Amino acid sequence: MEYLKGIEKHSFGGTCYANNYYLFLLLEYLGYDVKLCGADMKNPDVHLISIVTINGAEYIVDCGYAAPFFKPLPRDLEEDFTLYFGEEEYIIKAQDRNRLTKIEQFFNGKLQHWYTVKPQPRKIEEFKKVIIDSYADDATFMNAIRITRFTENGSFVLKNLYLTETIDHKTYTTKIVRKDLPAIVEQKFGMPADIVSKAISHIEELKDIYD
Hints:
211 residues; alpha+beta; 2 domains; 12 strands
């Protein structure tokens, strides 16, 4: 209820541990053949996704990567599958010999981030430690600002002090003065400025989310 209230009242989202887990529960409740799975980034099991099987074909469902994955991503690929969105490019690689799927994110042609999906079914309890660690004082997302909102024809992406707006595949990036962040987040993302101000007040130095 707290998760849903945050979405309804304050336009909150969440990390993959909330967004993808509750979506998994919803898909399971609706009767889909779905399993919760882990994914590796620089460290193992720091990302959470779902895999849905329809007519024998597997699809990755991920609404916790701050990426424009509007539709399930095919896993049974013979060649790479690419998604383009503004200056960002996402490549879903064909499965390797261990049946693992790698997803790569490029920005302006430069590889920024990636994760590797492991298809074994998991329980949310197995991620207890990594979830707790994500709230540590020195954890990346406790010291960085990352908010993404998608619309029918574009997106707003806030990475620390840089706001990128994509409209009809045209992209504009603006640097923001820190004191203006709460008002801009309220305007662009619908989150109350007073809550945003309180949330970022403890951050002394903003971390690069790609470190």
